[in-house]
Amino acid sequence: MITGYKAARNRPLTRGQKLSNMALAAVRAPVEHGFAHLKNWRVLGKLLTDPAWATALVRALQVLTNREVAR
User: How far apart are CA 5 and CA 29, in angstroms?
Assistant: First the structure.
């Protein structure tokens, strides 16, 4: 797991650490937005089925979500 840098009271972040945090945030944001959109479907909360079918369902929901977001 990759985590960002945290500043302390007596030690502010260096320019390199700030750039690293921004790069990490840029990678994490689309993933977190994708999970948030999938949670809106609420189907995944009650999913008690075969993992292979669940994967297909998640892929289908992701396609629908991407089409909705792209509008």
Answer: 17
Is this structure's pTM higher than 0.85? Answer: no
Chain segment 60-70, per-residue pLDDT in tens: 878 887 776 66
Angle in degrees, CA 23, 15, 7, rounded to 5:
85
Q: Which amino acid is at 47?
A: L
Which stretch of DSSP H or E encloses residue 63? helix 51-70
**What span, in angstroms and rounded, lies between the C-alpha atoms of 66 and 18?**
30
Beta bridge partners, 8, equal: 11
